[in-house]
Amino acid sequence: MRQGDRSGIEDPARLLLVAEWGGEVVGHLAGVVAEGSAMRPLKVATLLSLYVRRAHRGARTGARLVAAFRDWAREQGAQRAEVTAYAASQDAIRFYERNGFGAYTLTLGQSL
Can you give the residue ranges of every domain in the chain? Predict the structure, then answer.
């Protein structure tokens, strides 16, 4: 795991991690941390995007990326970490639950 090149992305509140195997990028994670507000006084780290190539799933690549995200979030002073997954994506939900995330809010939607 290594932190991506930050040139051009000078904002310390943003994170880009890549996972490499044999010199090839096999996964990535993007995250951001935001200060609290009157409605939500906690500083929150949000995992925006996580992808691991199918051939490298099950090898803890995603878990290592999430662990690095949590470490970074703590260093940034975040008090909570969150991620959004589609309700129909049961594999993703199980993955995030195995990695310490649990239901916190529920967003309902409809097609227009």
Answer: 2-98
pLDDT for residue 8: 41
**Residue 46: which of 37, 57, 35 has the closest Cα?**
35
pLDDT tens string 19-29: 999 999 999 99
Residues of the chain with pLDDT under 50: 7-8
100: its two tokens: 């310490």
Helix residue ranges per DSSP H, 1-112: 61-75, 90-98
Residues 103 and 81: their CA atoms lie apart, in Å, by: 12
Q: What CATH architecture does domain 2-98 belong to?
A: 3-Layer(aba) Sandwich (3.40)
Report pTM. Answer: 0.83
Residue 41 to residues 35, 79, 80, 94: CA-CA distances in angstroms? 8, 10, 11, 28
